[in-house]
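Researcher: Structure for this, please.
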Amino acid sequence: MSVILNSELRGEKTISDLRAGGKITAELYGPEIKNQSVLLDYKEFDKVYNEAGESSLVVVKAPDGTDINVLIVEVQYHPISGKYINVDLRQVSMKEKIEADVELKFIGEAPAVKSLGGTFIPAKNTLTIKALPSDLISEIEIDISGLVTFDDKITVADIKLAPGIEVMDAPEALVAIITEPQEEEAAVTPESEAERVASVEVAGEKKEEGEEEKKGE
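Model: Predicted structure, token format:
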């Protein structure tokens, strides 16, 4: 289900005034509409972006009241505060499939971690999918409860999505594994380190003495 984002005309206000008023700028463009600079309410955009991300359809209500189907394709952040400062909204055709990167959400508990002490390693954080805009999803859940041994793994081929959604990544590409626990190295105490240094020094002295004896011969 798509979410709705309201927009308004930018007007003549400065960037500082707009930000003080809780607004951020946005560029609205696409093959079937006129490019236009608009304003978005900061809090509303934050809520919509957290819900839809960059891979779900968003309906933008343009300043003239027209509903436009878009994707959030780029978000710019303030270098110091980290807040949104500008957004690109690209109109999409509802009849043409498009590609989008979708975040992976790992769920469940892997027995190889719980019982065997292994470490869960995600090989991918996103997958590229291709679908009609109305079929796009914001995330893909990956159940890791099937990782029972260290030989088990999850590949792209193991991921099943709804009809109409195609995964573009190679089927054999690795998604997640469990690695065996690593043996901890023996702790080095000051005493053992001193003994090691002393043994090296003694060995060096014996070597020098041997070389001197050979020279004397």
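Researcher: Any notable elements?
Model: The chain has a mean pLDDT of 86. The radius of gyration is 29 Å.
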